[in-house]
TrEMBL record:
GO biological process: glycolytic process
Domain called Metalloenzyme: residue spans: 1-358
Pathway(s) this gene product operates in, as recorded in its UniProt entry: Carbohydrate degradation
Free-text function comment from the UniProt entry: Catalyzes the interconversion of 2-phosphoglycerate and 3-phosphoglycerate.
PANTHER family tied to this protein: 2,3-BISPHOSPHOGLYCERATE-INDEPENDENT PHOSPHOGLYCERATE MUTASE, COFACTOR-INDEPENDENT PHOSPHOGLYCERATE MUTASE
Higher taxonomy: Bacteria, Candidatus Fraseribacteriota
Name listed for the protein in its UniProt record: Cofactor-independent phosphoglycerate mutase
Record flagged with keyword DNA damage: no
Species of the source: Fraserbacteria sp. (strain RBG_16_55_9)
Length: 395
């Protein structure tokens, strides 16, 4: 049996007036996802964000991979550190370092853009390299990542940051930053870093005029999927966060050329790499597409429809067709969390999911679609999202 998990990041939404009060998922043309829904053994809603956690891709994707965040989650940045090959000691802390755009409005600084205009990776690397002499010392290290996503490592800083409160920049679009600056234990150190970086970046041209620190935490302790289920597999994503979760889960990271995490990502390359990994012996492949979430943060319903349709036609369709060569296969399809375009931030509402098994097709009406409405109408709600993997594996 081959297993594939397909994640359209932030794909779930709420009804949008400009779309006739349908969601982007309902408005999009998605024949491949709908076909899977019409034959799925399970179609319903799942809670991927446990109570007490900020709704984010870190918690959501950890849940989908079968790990209860209440037991394993320590922060976003240490997960990304694993993807970047950064070794963390037991007392080290990783901190997410976004390049952002701040703007002054009504005598207040606001979060203009959490991604600095989706800054190209090459340009971002130059900025990080220029910041290193300003910020690094024997305790602090800066590491360049992809686009706006980078890391700060605080060696031996664990006891200094326990209880610190850090806000994700994508949670405060257009809002004043003052109430959301670092607070609590260790906040003075983070504020100092942000101020020093800002003083340096303000002297340079471009949208990246500040850094924003968040997602701090130590290395998590997670058993691999091989140890838990005897599974060998791979993860395909443009996002360090998802790749890092794959590393901790014992999955091989497949780096597809041209992956960007946006609408211009290499969809075909991802689909081809997923099928090739299964042909070469993988039991499971986890394919994550970031684009629906990114355009949701922009508040753009039409771009979200495009992202969903691209996901359907260039990821779901080719992979579903290619899986037929194996005979026995199962698919788990879902978003990791909703990102309503009207809010431009993540929410904790349950997301639609389906499980399709080639060996147990359950025909449904041709009116069934993979959508929030049809998932809710099924009456099925999985309240503990980390059990979805067990459902997929039939264990």
């Amino acid at each position: 049996m081959k297993y594939v998990i397909l994640v359209g990041d932030g794909m779930a939404d709420a009804p949008v007036p400009e779309l006739g009060n349908t969601t982007p998922l309902e408005a999009a043309y998605t024949p491949h996802m709908d076909a899977l829904a019409q034959g799925a053994v399970a179609l319903g809603l799942a809670r991927t964000i446990p109570d007490g956690f900020e709704p984010g891709s870190d918690v959501g994707n950890m849940t989908i991979l079968g790990y209860d965040p209440r037991q394993y989650f320590t922060g976003r940045a240490p997960i990304e550190a694993a993807s970047m090959g950064i070794e963390l000691g037991p007392e080290d802390v990783a901190v997410r370092c976004n390049l952002v755009t701040l703007a002054q409005r009504n005598a207040q600084w606001v979060m203009e853009d959490y991604s600095a205009g989706h800054i190209p990776t090459g340009e971002a690397h130059k900025i990080i390299e220029n910041l290193r002499p300003q910020l690094e010392d024997e305790d602090f290290e800066l590491y360049p990542g992809v686009s706006y996503r980078h890391l700060l490592i605080w060696r031996g800083g664990l006891t200094e940051v326990k209880g610190v409160k850090l806000t994700p920049p994508h949670s405060i679009p257009g809002q004043p930053i003052e109430p959301h600056l670092p607070q609590g234990n260790g906040s003075a150190v983070f504020l100092n870093f942000m101020e020093r970086a800002r003083a340096h970046l303000n002297t340079r041209a471009g949208k990246a005029n500040a850094i924003w620190l968040w997602g701090a935490g130590p290395k998590p302790q997670m058993p691999t999927l091989q140890a838990r289920f005897g599974l060998m597999g791979s993860v395909i994503s443009a996002v360090d966060l998802v790749r890092g979760l794959g590393v901790y889960a014992g999955l091989r990271v497949i780096r597809v050329p041209g992956m960007t995490g946006y609408l211009d990502t290499n969809y075909q390359g991802k689909a081809t790499a997923a099928l090739r990994a299964l042909e070469e012996g993988d039991d499971l492949v986890y394919v994550h597409v970031e684009a629906p979430d990114e355009v949701s943060h922009e508040g753009n319903a039409q771009k979200k429809i495009q992202a969903i349709e691209d996901f359907d036609s260039q990821i779901v369709g080719p992979i579903a067709e290619g899986l037929k060569q194996f005979g026995d296969y199962s698919i788990l399809l879902l978003p990791d969390h909703p990102t309503p375009v009207s809010l431009r931030v993540h929410t904790r509402d349950p997301v639609p999911f389906l499980i399709y098994r080639s060996t147990d097709v359950a025909p449904r009406s041709s009116q069934i679609a993979f959508s929030e409405t049809c998932a809710k109408a099924s009456g099925i709600t999985v309240s503990e999202g980390h059990t979805l993997l067990g459902m997929l594996l039939h264990r």
